[in-house]
Write a structure and sequence with these properties.
This protein has 354 residues and is of the alpha/beta class. It is built from twelve helices and seven strands.
Length: 354
Amino acid sequence: MLLKVGAAPIIFVGGKGGVGKTTVASALGVHLAENGERVLVVSTDPAHSLGDIFDTAIGDDDTELAPGLHGMEIDADAEVDRYLDRVATHMREFVRPAMYAEIERQMELTRHSPGAAEAALLDRVADLMDQARLRYDRVIFDTAPTGHTLRLLALPEIMAAWTDGLLRSRERSDTLGRGVDRLRGRGPGGSDAGAARAASGVGAGAGSGDELSLIDQVTQQPADSRAERIRQVLLERRRRFSRARRLLLDPGSTAFILVLLPEKLPILETQKALDALRRHQVPVAGLVVNRVLPAEADGGFLEARREQEAEYLARISTVFDGVSRIHVPLLARDVGGMDALRAIGALLAEGGRT
């Protein structure tokens, strides 16, 4: 195989939207499966088309597509829900039940915040990179357009720095809390243990007879235990993201394939993507230049393409009956410059309706 994927168990296929990433990822998966490997093709693009290529419904779980070949389409919205549910569950372990409503409010705000989908997606991708390799010889990720992919690849480093910041804040908070206890003359087992619990959010309202206080007494932990649990959760997340980053940067574990068309804009975007991947030291296995006219293309070839196009145009007329449509012809050269844009703009504005 000319692409330098070697025996890398993890393969990312990326590129500008619409260049045929899903086709390349699927074809590579079929080839490897028919050569005796167990392969999982994972679509991370919100606009999934993996199921369309195989003409079968593919969900969020492994779906068998052919002998040795499985597919999966990650539902970004569902991942955000699961991700935030896990975060909320962890947070409930560290606060009084009276704060649960505030946690829900914060999770709802986070659900709609920029980056929530990328963080949730990275969580799932990191898990698949770690676990799916135990079940498959290859895991092929059909990724979202290049910009999303580059953010995804940068997130492990960002999340590691973020986790470090949280841990430092946690340590400063613990140090400050111990200093306040010393100033007040309290220590572990001191006479003001009830006040210490109240200051840490543990045990407040205990014995008042209300339902929240009963839950509080059952679920809350000593402040030291709670702090250690927070620390362990943060460290585990950092370890997971660090493992993902190590895999991404290891040529023996990961290969990245870029797909492009022989057109101006895909070439420019691929140049930027390649530069960014090299800056991140992500191993690039090679490029797939898609939809290249064959050298033997002649009148018969073009006529066959025209016949197929006519079938699709007829289908468009049927499926989108009643919707205004304008046909923009394939041009002899790439669109570039004001004259070409002006001509297409005129077609869009005055080209008639079909």
